Amino acid sequence: MKYLFSIIILGLLASCGGIRVNYDYDKATNFRNYSSYNYFSDMDSGLSQLDEQRLLRVLDSTLQSKGFLLTEEPCFYINILSSEFRSSPNNAVGVGIGGTGRNVGGGVSVGLPLGNSGIQRRIQFDFVDAQKDALFWQATTESGYRENASPSVREERLRALVKKVFSKFPPQ
Description:
- With 172 residues, the protein is an alpha/beta fold.
- Helices cover 27% and strands 39% of the residues.
- It has a domain at 18-86 and 118-168: Double Stranded RNA Binding Domain, CATH 3.30.160.
- It contains three helices and eight strands; from the N terminus they run H-E-E-H-E-E-E-E-E-E-H.
- It has a six-stranded mixed sheet, covered by helices on one side. A two-stranded antiparallel ribbon has the order 5-6.
- Helix 2 (49-65) crosses helix 3.
C-alpha cells in the first residue's frame, strides 16, 4: 500500500512539472497609478480559442480581486503571447571506455538520454501604459503542457499559472 501511494505521489509531481516565472519591470513605475486595464484589440495570443477564453477568465478574476477594473478607457493594456516547444531530456547516463598503457591513453564516451522530451508552453504577459505606450511590467512563464488534457485540467493548469505569475504583482 505504501509503495502504491508513493508511486501515485511521484506521478502527480512529475506530471505537474514546475511553473517557472521570470519578471521584469520598470523600477521608476508607480504601480498605484494604475487602476484599470483592458486587452489589446488585435491581440494574437497563440493559444487555442478555448484556452485563450479560459486564460482571460482566470486573469480577469485575479486582477479584479487585486482591485483592478476592466474598462474601455484603461490605464494599461495587456498583451499575451504564447508558444510551444519540445524540451530535451534533462537527464543522461554516460558510458565510457578507456585504456592506458606505456604512456599512451585513450577513451570514448557516449551520453544516453533518459526519459522523453516533453512539450513546454511559454506564455508572456506584457503590461503597456496606455498614455505613454510603453511596456512597464512583463512576466514570462514556462511550464509543461499536455495537448490531450481535459478542459478541467487545462483550466486548473492555467489557474495555477496565473496565480503564480500574479503572486508578485504589483511589485513591492
